[in-house]
């Protein structure tokens, strides 16, 4: 019944929203551990429905949109409860919300490895990862059992995801969705650097750890990724056709050029540090791909002007 029927999903969304509202009645707050536990059991059950539909009807946009609604409603319910009852009344909810969001993030990469054309999954992954980071970076947020400061925890989390996703390239380097997932994660990394994921006043990252993480990010994503990727293609050249290798190089180069643009536009130049090495690599990429029509036109035209302004 659900499959691809917008009206069915809209009705389910309305019913689920009313169901969650019942947990905070009659006083407008959720103040017991039992209530929080039952609330998240309902939320997890709804996620299981979304997973089942997506498994039976691949690339189901509506199931992923509904899952995003459920995750956002979980965060909004906790956030509203903090406003109405204070942080103390939501301690149990903080742990359960963190575990739920973390589990959702951890499900994305295995899903993408098995459903390599599912754009909706990649975008949902970025949405729920953004929620987890926003939650952890709040003054009243929670970051699990780590002893790291919140911003360092966030940078470390995305760094681990980026490192893990490199293994996907060994098998699925020709699939655009894997590269899109990496772009979305890279954007969130730079938002932490810029302080844009914190609620309230923007607080930019300035610790030595953050500077080192930002500089490593630039080196890994702009320089090393492309160079290592091309070496792997050469070593395994007998396994791929020329068209496959051309497609893989297109995705790799487009990613490096795009992420360099995002780094240049980042407002934290003191944290990002010297970009001369990355800029030189970008110029080489532009020269190498100048006559290749597979590179997106606006990237090829816009980046030379951008790099001259550094």
From TrEMBL:
Domain of life: Eukaryota
A GO CC term attached to the entry: cytoplasm
Alphabetical list of InterPro entries matching this protein: Prenyl_trans_a
Pfam families tied to this protein: PPTA
Annotated signal peptide: none
Keyword Secreted attached: no
Single annotated GO MF: protein prenyltransferase activity
The entry's keywords: Prenyltransferase, Repeat, Transferase
Family: Belongs to the protein prenyltransferase subunit alpha family.
PANTHER family according to UniProt: PROTEIN FARNESYLTRANSFERASE ALPHA SUBUNIT/RAB GERANYLGERANYL TRANSFERASE ALPHA SUBUNIT, PROTEIN PRENYLTRANSFERASE ALPHA SUBUNIT REPEAT-CONTAINING PROTEIN 1
Protein name in the entry: Geranylgeranyl transferase type II subunit alpha
Lineage, highest ranks first: Eukaryota, Sar, Stramenopiles, Ochrophyta, Bacillariophyta
